[in-house]
């Protein structure tokens, strides 16, 4: 059996009891990381360390920070082959991911390969980053009949304006990509903004004032919640 285990957005305590139990019972844990100019980093390794899982066999798979998916596909393929061999020997294997398994998670690509190999899989969902962001800002994502839209890598102000014709709240994920192209136009709008980065970590930063981040370097793990109307208005 292979388990896909979501570890949440960054706070090591924000994972389910089931997720922790499965990891403690696992023989091998695979975790993703990033590779940029030869430097490898993993957002999840500190979470595994926090829960004292170093006694497990931990295997990292590192993806290049690039829009070219060639290397990523090769890494996923190799990782699945490793998992298949471990399963054949009777090992209990877990593959962890940030946030939730169903939202922009690297595990989804591994899941497809596992299904093609008819390897039994169980998925354990987790808390996503924008849920934690809303909690940190103490603002609801939606109320009554509010419609919420999640959009990755927004490209322009025109896109945002168009979406607001149909939706009440926008969650912009991966805002680093084109942030500078629409930042100034955003600040001119009479909307409510809830910016978040590196949620749940010791580098967490949140603000409702976009002017505070006018010259800030936006990291990959960042998001922006925009609401047309505020609950307290």
Low-confidence stretches: none
- Average per-residue pLDDT, rounded, comes to 91
In DSSP terms (H or I, runs of 4 or more residues), the helix count works out at: 7
Sum up the overall morphology in one term: elongated
Beta-strand residue fraction: 25-35%
Question: Could you estimate the helical fraction of the residues in percent?
Answer: 25-40%
Termini Cα gap: 51 Å
Number of strands: 11
Largest sheet: 6 strands, mixed
Q: Assign the structural class, choosing from mainly alpha, mainly beta, alpha/beta, alpha+beta, or little secondary structure.
A: alpha/beta
Q: Give Rg in angstroms.
A: 19 Å
The helix-strand sequence is EHEEHEHEHEHEHEHEEE
Describe the fold and architecture.
By secondary structure, the protein is α/β, with parallel strands linked by helices. The strands form two sheets. Strands 1, 2, 3, 4, 5 and 6 form a six-stranded mixed beta sheet that branches. It has a five-stranded mixed beta sheet with strand order 7-8-11-9-10, with helices on one face. The protein is elongated. The model has no long low-confidence stretch (mean pLDDT 91).
Distinctive features:
233 residues; alpha/beta; 6-stranded mixed sheet; 5-stranded mixed sheet; 11 strands; 30% helix; elongated
Outline the secondary-structure elements.
Blueprint: E1 2-6, H1 17-25, E2 28-36, E3 39-41, H2 45-50, E4 57-64, H3 70-88, E5 93-97, H4 107-116, E6 121-124, H5 129-137, E7 148-152, H6 157-163, E8 169-173, H7 179-187, E9 192-197, E10 205-207, E11 222-227
Parallel strand pairs: 1-5, 1-6, 2-4, 2-5, 7-8
Antiparallel strand pairs: 2-3, 8-11, 9-10, 9-11
Helix pairs in contact: 3-4
């Amino acid at each position: 059996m292979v388990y896909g285990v979501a570890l949440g957005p960054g706070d090591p305590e924000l994972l389910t009891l089931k997720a922790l139990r499965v990891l403690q019972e696992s023989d091998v844990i695979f975790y993703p990381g990033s590779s940029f100019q030869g430097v490898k980093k993993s957002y999840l390794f500190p979470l595994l360390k926090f829960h004292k899982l170093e006694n497990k066999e931990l295997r990292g798979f590192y993806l290049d920070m690039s829009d070219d998916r060639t290397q990523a596909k090769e890494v996923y393929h190799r990782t699945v082959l490793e998992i298949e061999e471990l399963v054949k020997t009777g090992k209990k294997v877990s593959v962890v991911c940030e946030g939730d398994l169903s939202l922009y998670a690297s595990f989804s690509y591994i899941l497809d390969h596992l299904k093609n190999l008819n390897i039994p899989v169980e998925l354990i969902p987790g808390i996503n980053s924008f849920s934690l962001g809303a909690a940190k800002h103490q603002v609801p994502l939606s109320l009554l009949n509010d419609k919420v839209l999640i959009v990755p890598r927004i490209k322009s102000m025109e896109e945002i304006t168009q979406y607001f014709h149909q939706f009440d709240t926008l969650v912009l994920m991966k805002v680093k990509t084109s942030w500078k192209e629409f930042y100034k136009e955003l600040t001119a709008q009479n909307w409510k903004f809830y910016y978040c980065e590196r949620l749940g970590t010791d580098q967490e930063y949140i603000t409702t004032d976009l002017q505070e981040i006018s010259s800030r370097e936006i990291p990959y793990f960042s998001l922006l919640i925009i609401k047309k109307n505020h609950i307290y208005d």
